[in-house]
Amino acid sequence: SNLSWLGYGCLKGDGTVVTVNAIGAALQTLYILVYLYYSPAKRLVLVQVLLLLAVVVTGYGYFTVLVDSGTRLTHLGLFCSVFTISMYLSPLADLAKVVRSKSTRCLSFPLTVTTLVASSSWTLYGLQLHDLYITVPNVPGIITSLVRFWLFQRYRPELDKPYSPLPA
Predict the structure, then answer these.
(1) 8 Å CB contact between 121 and 68
(2) Using an 8 Å Cβ cutoff, are 135 and 127 in contact?
(3) Taking the CB of the first residue and of the last residue of the chain, which one, N or C, has fewer CB atoms within 10 A?
(4) Measured between alpha carbons, how far is 140 from 154 in angstroms, rounded to an integer?
């Protein structure tokens, strides 16, 4: 996601999008390297990283070779938007689990706050630039965050039944 938005920012000449996503890509790379270092299943993780790298290189090739320069920004903006929307909608499975179990244990409150702040910031930034590719995909992040806040209110963590420890 960061690399896609980094490419979008470079094509558009938007320093803010470039800076934020360059830092995000660097942090994600560091996270992957640390995860790989400490992972007991190094071979599996390495294969997954290499597959992800192949997808990134294929995407880069597609956007630089097959898409003409006149429509490249539009195609990349649409791709980034779809990717961002899918990222924000991915917790919907957890929301169904929360409603079924009437427990918010599987939700992260700090992540919900962070998602709301980030998606709201990007939405406002996109509105300021009149850039629908930045504005529209961040609205689902706001909506899903508000739904999660409502779930935290409805199924308060302190009302959860404590788990009984398993016998040793």
Answers:
(1) no
(2) yes
(3) C
(4) 21
Structural tokens at position 52: 């992800």
- Distance in angstroms (rounded) separating the CA atoms of residues 97 and 91: 10
How is residue 8 written in tokens? 């979008």
pTM here is 0.80
> Is the predicted pLDDT of residue 162 greater than 70, yes or no?
no
Q: Report the alpha-carbon distance of residue 58 to residue 4 in Å, rounded.
A: 12
Judged against a pLDDT cut of 80, whether residue 160 lies above it is answered with: no
Residues 6+ apart with CB under 8 A from 71: none
Side chain identity at residue 77, one-letter code:
G
- Counting Cβ atoms within 10 Å, is residue 2 exposed (0-12), middle (13-18) or buried (19+)? middle
- Where do the structural domains in the chain lie, given as residue ranges? 1-66, 88-157
DSSP conformational letter for 65: I
Contact call for residues 73 and 17 (beta carbons, < 8 A)? no
pLDDT at 161: 55
Query: Residue 125 has what pLDDT?
Result: 97
CATH number of 88-157: 1.20.1280.290
